[in-house]
Amino acid sequence: MFEELAEALRARLVDRARAGAGEGDVRAQVRALVEREAAPLSEIERADLCERVLRLAGGLGPLEPLLRDPSVDEVMVNGPSEIYVERAGQIEPTQACFSSEEELAHAIERILAPLGRRVDEASPMCDARLADGSRVNVVVPPLCIGGPCLTIRRFRRDGFSLEDLVQVRSLPAPAAELLSRAVRARASILVSGGTGSGKTTALNALSGAIPPGERIVTIEDAAELRLRQSHVVRLEARPPNLEGRGEVSIRMLVANALRMRPDRIVVGEVRGAEALDLLQALNTGHDGSLSTVHANSPEDALRRVETLALMAGVGLPHAAVREQVASAIDLVLHLARTREGTRSVTSVTEVVRAAGGVGTRELLVKDSVRAPGDGRLARRLAEGA
Asked: How many helices (H) and strands (E) does the chain have?
């Protein structure tokens, strides 16, 4: 009953705003509305009702305290009655919940409306970025059986550097030194790992080693990278509208970036036919670029890039694509997430030419690194010294 009253007052407040009578402090308007419409309630009940109406009118309801908590890295809403969070790599349930699917739907609407996005039966999925850089994914019925699902990956304003990764024991110090030298020497590095393994964090840390003064173009589905250099051009893909028009894909952005005189191209994630365009860019003078890919091992990462490049449908033989991979990528940095929730670098692999195309050579041995073999990476490091 109390929630129904709060929802009715929220609707009244919205109607007043649409009629042009809603100017001034929102809290004062809500207080006056509650005093007029719910006078029989006690002072404590009226104060509680005011907070509920404000929460429904402008906030995100039970998500507000979770999003204010700096220890929360991700919020996962599985329908109105189940809300989970990730803290320090561990997923845990919360006591928070929405009172109904309608309240959850209102919260989703308040998140997406300022972004010019929406979800409904015709378009039941949405991937978007909040103003602070946090990433939002929404899936609604009929695709989601138990009610709307909302996932918010929090944005860390101060990204990790390679030194920070060493301090939190995600990366051995010798490996950090090797990677820093490799980036400065314009080695092309592919970051691989599973979902939530820290690929974007590692990519951001690697980019910190790019010398100042270079022109960097970043390309992402949803802009998450925060590079510390001054000369950075950030490009973000755009999904099609409800009529299926206006899409700007990662592949289109990669092709366009080559015309923007980049010193480095940083692709947030390779997941489609843009892999071929990136390989061609790396093999035609745009070395030193960085990207990530979903994979279970460095070897799987290279095979996945081959497969994605073949998806471009240009009819290149598999052997030709494999040859491009071997000549384009110098290092693969692989990350994994443990059962305890920690994220760490498990492999630093040199890409070498081998019989049949691509070979790998592990450089990270326990907490130390060995020198690259007598190949392209060694020559780059020697020239960049």
From this structure: 13, 16
Q: What angle in degrees, to the nearest 10, is found between the helix axes of 318-328 and 298-310?
A: 130
Residues 127 and 170 in one domain: no
Each residue of 229-247: pLDDT tens digit? 889 999 988 887 767 788 8
Provide the b/e sequence for 177-209 (b: ≥16 CB within 10 Å).
Answer: ebbbebbbbbbbbbbbbeebbbbbbbbbbbbbb
CATH number (domain holding residue 168): 3.40.50.300
Tell me the whole-structure pTM to 2 decimals.
Answer: 0.77
27 in Cβ contact with 54 (< 8 Å): yes
For residue 248, the Cα-to-chain-centroid distance in whole angstroms is 18
Is residue 348 within a helix (H) or strand (E), and if so which, with residue range? strand 343-354
E strand or H helix at 55, and its extent? helix 43-58
Instruction: Please compute, for residue 267, the number of CA atoms within 13 A of its CA located in the half-sphere on the CB side.
Output: 35
Same domain, 219 and 356: yes
